[in-house]
Amino acid sequence: MNTAFREKLKDKQRIVIKIGSSSLTHPDTGYLDLIKLEVLVREISDLRNQGKDVILVSSGAIMVGSKTMGYDRKPSKMAQKQACAAIGQAKLMMIYQKLFAEYNQVASQILMTKHTILNNLNRLNAKNTFEELLRMGAIPIVNENDTISTYEIEFGDNDTLSAVVSAMVGADLLILLSDIDGLFTDDPHKNPEAKFIDVVEELDEHLLSMGKGSTGSNVGTGGMATKLTAAEIASAAGTDMIIANGADFHVIHKIMQGRAYGTLFLSHKKNDFYVLDFLERIL
Questions:
Q1: Is 221 known as a binding-site position?
Q2: Is 227 labelled as part of a ligand binding site?
Q3: Of 19, 65, 124, 249, which has the fewest beta carbons less than 10 angstroms from its beta carbon?
Q4: Is 223 marked as binding a ligand?
């Protein structure tokens, strides 16, 4: 039965891919892993060549900015984080646009805040922008606007944002790539008996309570709890979701081929689901 679920991934047409900071950088230095970035861009470009819509939600602005300015690690002061985000976001987009151009793709930037989501007019404008960019064949690259907002820096490493974007644009599939293989029955770093969960057919309270506050990474800010929140939003909006390891971005085409990578969360669209109501409870 699980194989049948995976086979359906081949037919997904609108895909949101979220990349965590730890998946973009060298673990020893914190600098961007340019080889991995090139693989990511090639994978996304190939999905576009198949006629699929792709939105990339990319973390990394603060990390890139802090390394550019000579910090050994992410700064702790809010003003420093915001300044590094301003520097890092521009540099990150420059690299993305250069790499995507090599594959004849056009990258665009959308920066969002909590108010973009909660304000009706802002949310409608954002949705219309996404739709027009996708109609043009561009690849929207989304991040939280850390430069002007203090809230989003603690938002959960873009996990929740990627689910909100998926709901907003009616995505078929959300792929969360981070430094974990997927969902386990317990923390596999602490419990060798923890079992990997291949498919979650229904996200119940027991599974939601399994979320931990940390992935073990000192780069990203999101943990399993934020990923399960993302799964809850995506499922209710009618979007299937996968949590997979971003150590090798070739995993993207393997997932899209229906191969068994990561944990697949099946969607259960709620007719009365309204993303704003849900977000007002958690933001």
A1: yes
A2: yes
A3: 124
A4: yes
